Amino acid sequence: MSTTASTPASTSASPPPTPAPATVLLAGSTSALGASLLAGLRSRSSSRPVTVLALARGEQPNLAADGAADGAADGGAAARNFPNFTVKPLTWDGVTPPPLESVPELSNLTHVINLCGDSIAEGALGPIRPWEQPGKLESVVSSRTESTRGLLSWLERNAGGLSAAKIHHINAGGVGIYGDDHTLASSPPPEATSEAHPAPGKRESGFLAEVSREWEAAATTSNPGKIQVSVLRIAPVLLAAPGVFSAPGVLKSLLPAFFFGAGGRVGSGTQMFPFVGERDFQAAVLDHVMQAGEGGVYNIVSPSRISNEQFSRSLAKALGRPCLLPMPAFVVRQLFGQMGEEVLLGGVTATPKRLLDEGYDFLDADVDSAMKHAVGGVKLMG
Ligand SMILES: NC(=O)c1ccc[n+]([C@@H]2O[C@H](COP(=O)([O-])OP(=O)(O)OC[C@H]3O[C@@H](n4cnc5c(N)ncnc54)[C@H](OP(=O)(O)O)[C@@H]3O)[C@@H](O)[C@H]2O)c1
């Protein structure tokens, strides 16, 4: 059967239907990853009108500064360039979303994305080791579990009144759930961990694995008929760094040393270093997971399996610097304590099995390519 129209297009063609507007509730919109997803959502808004309800515990000057929010101070350049994209900054307490009934776009809610979580490595070079600061470990856990439970119970109370047949809740998680016992040097080499790990009932040791388990346990719903939950086990994301001292995410503490030629591997450098490029983080989340029908766990990690030494060499190479000065393990332990042991000296091996099985094609699978995107445009004072 032919599908070709028989009447001339000039007289009978009707304009393509306008796609239904979508509303995304983004909790943790002030996070480094939140800024990246906002940019990704904005650049994709030409094909579908999008409103982001951006939840944070305080003001969000970043949104006004880049022109993303309503009433931005830049004279509305972003609004003119992306007329289909709107951000509404909203404050909350980190647990329960504010009354949103007065927000007209709420009825179009299709997705909730939760990126909340007190930084695991923040305060790394303070006088007190990061995880020894009073209340730090409790805050790392509760900022993740309470925000997750709060959002899901809010959604369970309100989902019935929303027009979408199913709301997709996407929760951040980490590859730290796989624990640390793998190095490239071990023989035989470790098997890369897929989403099928850890096996049910198996408890990887370490604080990161423990937090990750509690976090994922919180990301469950009593109403799977109306709410679909996806968990992202995210590897360190190589976010684009505007300046040497303003790099977001994992490169924040590394970039100054490497830029001035004082970087090198950490410890033996044989520990595995999972990573994902920013373009793949955005595309995997926004173009794949958000559109996927089934929910569940996704490893958001590059398929390249590299060591800390390979990662360090790639960063130095992208900056045109040598990679000469290793940080010995005893210095890491002295300065950072248990955080250094797990985050810097520990290694995780993870593979994006599900993304690959479902046909996702990585843009920057190779670390050099992801690194070039992250630091290729870095400026001394950017
Ligand atoms: N960056 C990475 O490469 C990476 C890798 C794997 C997993 N992740 C996970 O992805 C999420 C975002 O990471 P990020 O590095 O972009 O984070 P980030 O820049 O450190 O930002 C942390 C976010 O968490 C919120 N937050 C902090 N304490 C909170 C609390 N007690 N209650 C509610 N919200 C709280 C902050 O919002 P306020 O404005 O309200 O303070 C902020 O938006 C985190 O959960 C992190 O563990 C990140």
Write up what this structure looks like.
With about 375 residues, the chain is α/β, with parallel strands linked by helices. The chain has a single domain (about 20-240, about 275-305, about 350-365), classed as NAD(P)-binding Rossmann-like Domain (Rossmann fold, 3-Layer(aba) Sandwich), CATH 3.40.50.720. Helices cover about 30% and strands about 15% of the residues. The protein has helices at about 10, 30-45, 60-65, 75-80, 135-160, 205-220, 255-260, 280-290, 310-320, 330-345, 355, 365-375; strands at about 20-25, 50-55, 85-90, 110-115, 165-175, 225-235, 235-240, 275, 295-300. It has a 7-stranded parallel β-sheet, with helices on both faces. It has a two-stranded parallel ribbon with strand order 7-8. The protein is globular, with a radius of gyration of 22 Å. It starts with 8 loop residues before the first helix and ends in a 7-residue tail after the last helix. The relative contact order is 0.13. It binds NADP nicotinamide-adenine-dinucleotide phosphate. NADP nicotinamide-adenine-dinucleotide phosphate (NAP) binds near residues 57, 174, 234 and 250.
